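job 3f2a | input accepted
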Amino acid sequence: MEPRQPAHLFSGPLARKHLARIAEAGRNAWTRTRELAAGPGHLLSVLGDRMPKGLYARSLLIIITPMVILQAIVTYMFMEKYWQGVTERLSAATTKDIAGLVELYEQLPHDKATRDMLQTIAQKQLALGIEFRPPEDLPPRGTRPFFDILDQALSDEIRTRIGLPFWIDTVGRSNLVEIRIKLDDTVLRVFALRSQTFASNSYIYLLWMLGSSLILMTVAILFLRNQIRPIQQLAVAAQDFGKGRDVQNFRPRGAREVRQAANAFIEMRRRVERSFEQRTAMLNGVSHDMRTILTRFKLSLALLDESNPEFEDLQKDVDEMSRMLEAYLAFARGDAAEQAAPTDIEMLLEQLRSDSVRQGHDTKVSFQGNPIVVVRPDAFKRCLTNLVSNAQRFGRAIMISGQRESRYLIVTVDDDGPGIPEDSREDVFKPFFRLDEARNQDYGGTGLGLAIARDIARFHGGDITLGKSPLGGLRATVRIPV
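job 3f2a | predicted structure (482 res):
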């Protein structure tokens, strides 16, 4: 009959716990197996995800990694060939001296005169200190040293050349090595300088290697920092130009390739500015000619009799044409020529609130953080004005909130209107797009208000998003970097 197995091996909480650990270990092994089976492509992908992302860190890694690998190889070769080889030769020479003393003692009478003679020879000729102790058991073997090159080499030599029970201590005293050899009627105790058995000056090589590595790494860090700085300055100049800030003081610096990129950026900036100037001049001419025609229409309309039944319709058409012309020109102009300047956003929001209250809307304003932000004042005000006007057109209650964070300025405009369906919130930013299904189509407009607002926000390096408002209507969020 087979022995009955204890029940606790197959059931109970302890068994379930062990089974869970076994299952988890199996899953981990399977995951590692799948990663290895995925081939080098997967390993390279994982390695790429864990690599530093910055150019400065990657450049340092490219320089330091080969240096560390090279020095590790050199150190291994030094430890393996030179240090170990010299230690073995020194240990062999010391062991030969001890073996000669042991052989002389065994061939001569074991009296005090022999022992005194051997002590004199060891001290004067061999630079060894010896002592004859009464017969006793050798001490137990001590803790194996971390760097056991000397311990291993000396033990092998004594075992090969002398062949008697022995005990060595290479750790107890910093500058001495103690060796005990058990003879027939005594225990020979030998003290040798560590330098006689061990290549003790090897640490100088390691210190030189580490010192030179630190110097090379310091030079590499300083050199790379100077090379990375022009690239960072180019990135800052590009960001400032995108936000409409002054970048006239930017000059190409650094390596030849970085200078080429900086010169290309400067040339691009000149072309963009020249294009803006040409477009502005063209729009000024068009607006002047169109306003002249509108002025003629208004003058002709002023000469008509107000009792004429067509007078009111013509007045509405002229006013509508004037508003559309201003909207089109504002959208095409984009306020690109305006320079950015520090602006009090909290005061700007308060002005918007006052204008909205005068038009009969229940409007509230709140702001948190430092209100001074560098923006294009007129353009940013037009952006927020368009959002507030959109909220006024379709809602009664309006909430304007501003928040200055460490990197961004966030302004939200909430209303209690009908809102916009989620699948149409991107379409309303298209020029001339009018969403009659979500908003009351009785209200006029050109369909350019939100398009102009987003264009201004993106010109500042930010964007506008739409969502559902806590008031029940639409929430427009402006987010620009500061």
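job 3f2a | The CA atoms of residues 99 and 162 lie 6 Å apart.
job 3f2a | closed
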